[in-house]
Amino acid sequence: MASVSVDEAKYTQRGIPVSNGKLAMWLFLVTEIMFFTGLIGTYIVLRMGTPEGAWPKPTDVHLSEALGAINTFVLIFSSFTVVMAHSAIARGDSKKCLTYVAITFACGVLFMGIKAYEYSAKFSHGIMPGYIADNLIDPSLRGVDTSRPEYKHLEEPEYARFIKEAGRHPYDPGSAQWFKAQVRQKLTPVAQPVIEQIAADETKAKEEQRILSPEERQELLEKIRNEAQSAEQKKALDCYEVVAAINGSGQSRPASALEIGIMSNKLNEKYHDLHLPAFIPYGNLWASCYFAMTGFHAAHVLGGLVVFAIILIHGLRGRLVKNAWNVSMLELTGLYWHFVDVVWIFLFPLLYLV
Predict the structure, then answer these.
(1) What percent of the chain has pLDDT over 90?
(2) Which of 82, 183, 225, 329 would bridge with 334, disulfide CB 3.0–4.6 Å?
(3) Interval 298-350: pLDDT, tens
(4) Whole-angstrom Cα distance, residue 150 to residue 259?
(5) Inter-axis angle of helices 231-247 and 257-270, nearest 10
């Protein structure tokens, strides 16, 4: 019996046949996989729970597929260079290893630079959680008589698809008024030349003891439009029409927040420098998901850059030589960096393409 026990002991494997460092890294990555699975899974559930076609498209939220694709290529290429760095140190080629680590570090910095540019585009357009006008649909619009001339345009598809949703989501009149005030504040300086021209004609009419009729005002706007030569003059006129709609100038009623939201979106598409508040249904939900997922991913990229910076300093001091410690360090760092790459491969199509 004793001899049998001894024979069995020869083939007994104690523990897992990997180093402690690699085991720790894999355990860490398992927790990270669960973390990002939770984020991505939540995003998918929220997106699938919205009405068909209602989720913001990449163009609605100023996402550039080209920039996302560039960042994807950058990270994939950096995964290749970190593998080459590990291969070089395993062969004892410290110089090549340092070069590949430097390229990987540069790719990570480029990725973060592009992401910072994308974030700045979101901030400049007010696309941040809690700042987006995502519900401007006044429930009272559902019962309006669209046979009346001032409501006739609400039958158009761009309005009708929203009015169908009227009353189904919480509507805050205060937020709607705040949105209109923000649009007016941004457009008034641009529309000032037209405002002054209209004001001059109104003053002239008052001197003649009369008030400009809506028809006269419309004729005056047509005259200004026909005389507008430069792009700035046409832009001022387009902006004035929205300001007039907000104020109700020459109309029987001020435009609703929904109408101003759609008009504001059109101006944003036509004049990219206006940066008007955008009307984006489900925009706050999208922004919360976007900044949570890409923000945590960027934090992981930043963590990898810190490690690569330490390795670079280590190499510049002549200490990046072939030994068990350095080979293991680069292998474990590469595992982490591959994980960061794989996460982005999931985020890119979900956010930029679908």
Answers:
(1) 34
(2) 82
(3) 999 999 999 999 999 988 888 888 888 888 889 999 999 999 999 999 999 99
(4) 12
(5) 170
For 65, the token pair is: 């597929």
pLDDT at 269: 81
Q: Hunting for tokens 């850059």 — which residue is that?
A: 305
Bridge partner residues of 279 (DSSP): 133
Sign of CA dihedral 253, 259, 261, 263: negative
C-alpha span between 354 and 13 (Å, rounded): 48
Closest CA to 176 of 228, 220, 134: 134
Tell me the two tokens of residue 226: 């026909």
166-185 in b/e form (b: 16+ CB < 10 A) is beeeebeeeebeebbebbbe
Q: Check: CB of residue 276 under 8 Å from CB of residue 127.
A: no
Report DSSP letters for 116-159, one per residue.
HHHHHHHHHTT-STTTSB-----GGGGG--TTSGGGGGGGSHHH
Is the backbone of residue 282 left (phi > 0), alpha (psi -120 to 50) or beta?
left
Element (H, E) at 354: none
3-state SS, residue 93: coil
Q: How far apart are CA 305 and CA 234, in angstroms?
A: 48
Which 3 state secondary structure label does DSSP give 279? strand
